[in-house]
Amino acid sequence: NLQESESENKLDGETASDSESKSEFGGSPPVPTSDDTPEVLNRALSNLSSRWKNWWVRGILTLAMITFFFIIIYLGPMVLMTIVMCVQIKCFHEIITIGYNVYHSYDLPWFRTLSWYFLLCVNYFFYGETVTDYFFTLVQREEPLRILSKYHRFISFTLYLTGFCMFVLSLVKKHYRLQFYMFGWTHVTLLIVVTQSHLIIHNLFEGMIWFIVPISCVICNDIMAYMFGFFFGRTPLIKLSPKKTWEGFIGGFFSTVLFGLLLSYVMSGYRCFTCPVEFNNDTNSFTVDCEPSELFQLQEYNIPVVLQSVVGWKTVRMYPFQIHSIALSTFASLIGPFGGFFASGFKRAFKIKDFANTIPGHGGIMDRFDCQYLMATFVNVYIASFIRGPNPSKLIQQFLTLRPDQQLHIFNTLKAHLVDKGILGSLEDA
Predict the structure, then answer these.
(1) Among 310, 355, 385, 394, who pairs with 366 as Cys (CB 3.0-4.6 Å)?
(2) For residues 225 and 246, is the Cβ–Cβ distance under 8 A?
(3) What whole-number distance in Å separates Cα of residue 127 and Cα of residue 119?
(4) What is the mean pLDDT of each run of 10 residues along the chain (430 residues)?
């Protein structure tokens, strides 16, 4: 009997130490997260097998979410940022709720209050940095905002320190280990969710195309991998996700790269997608009007000799951004799914099917955005490493806030530098 008990405990990677941990924290029964399929769909699909019923439910809800995605894109950057914030809050809520339920944290004093307080502190810090960076002129124009901007990091640290002291004061003798465990749970959740959503907004400010193409590539890969796996899948890909297959993984890769090239070609021709999102201080609104950079101007490229006989062309006209889209779509289809595998491992560890039951057939919001957060970090790093250069407009904004003597010093230094290089003299002659 003892051997049978041990073998049962080792199912799904669970060991005896896991069982001891569970007993110490009060046990961890499965969290019920069954999908609430609308009654209309249940009646309409009642004659289908569970496999095909799930296929139709997922398909219909996916089309609905894609439609919603197009609507918020049409509504503009401000609505997009608001949606990102709402998604972030919902994902945080789902993960925190799992910890709260699985480890029976009901008796922990101030746990939920402190979790949401730390979320508020981290958001205040990150979004305050964003406001100061992208709305510098507006901040300097308003006295209260200027004071908040000047002491922003000190205020942020003070807020966090207050929460830290509240946590220490809430420690009780019989719950020490569990309280520190949940303290770590909260901070890891903040690192995964809030930091990544902040990077998504930074990508948005670089241009809507840097927001839409990566997200669309992840969505495309998720759909096409599911489709290829559903119809052609035979070979299991990874034990963490038994339903994932090599056929779906490979089919999703080629489909996503092709989709990224086509979507990039279409979007690169519109300034509303390619121009950086900037705040116009005169109209107090966001603007996306600019002269397209070289990334979004058609150029002619020579096709490799090996492929010329296949395609029948020697050259091809395309946008340079399309080349970058290959890197984005490749990451979305080869590395992005590991965000989903990570989430699958997390759910298996706590014996839950989904993070929540928000979306029928899909689970919770976190179930849909597990790969998006990993993608957001990659895009931000990619832009910083290969795309972004010095921003003259931001330098000028900061220059105008300096004292007159500081501005004059910078002017004379810059003038002397230009004269030494012979640039200023040539300009005067012209």
Answers:
(1) 355
(2) no
(3) 12
(4) 40 39 46 54 72 76 83 85 90 88 72 91 92 77 85 96 95 86 91 90 90 93 91 88 89 96 94 84 74 91 83 88 95 92 87 80 79 90 86 73 87 88 64
Number of Cβ within 10 Å of residue 72's Cβ equals 13
- Is the pTM higher than 0.90? The answer reads no
Nearest of 286, 383, 369 to residue 69 by alpha carbon: 369
Tokens 């496999």 correspond to 51
235 CB neighbour count, 10 Å cutoff: 12
CA distance between the termini of the chain:
95
Please enumerate, as own/partner, the contacts of 171-180 that have beta carbons within 8 Å and a separation of 24 or more.
Answer: 172/109, 175/107, 175/108, 177/24, 178/24, 178/25, 178/26, 178/103, 178/105, 178/108, 179/108, 179/111
Q: What is the pLDDT of residues 161-182, one digit of tens each?
A: 999 999 999 998 888 888 898 8
Q: Which residues contact 110 (CB under 8 A, 6 or more apart)?
A: 166, 167, 170
Place of tokens 């950057």: 77
In the numeric block, which tokens belong to residue 407? 């501005």
Q: Tokens for 342, please give them.
A: 């990570």
| Nearest residue to 62 via CA among 231, 218, 249 | 218
The three-point CA angle 130-78-329 to 5° equals: 80
- Express each pLDDT in 251-299 by its tens digit: 999 999 999 999 999 999 999 899 888 777 677 677 788 888 899 999 9
Backbone φ and ψ for 300, nearest 5 degrees, come out as -100, 130
Task: Take residue 170 and report the two structure tokens written for it.
Answer: 């809430």
Residues listed for the chain: 430
Q: Which two tokens stand for residue 225?
A: 């991998």
Nearest to 280 by CA among 386, 138, 397, 142: 138
DSSP per-residue string spanning 16-85: HHHHHHHHHTT--PPPP------HHHHHHTTTS-HHHHHHHHHHHHHHHHHHHHHHHHHH-HHHHHHHHH
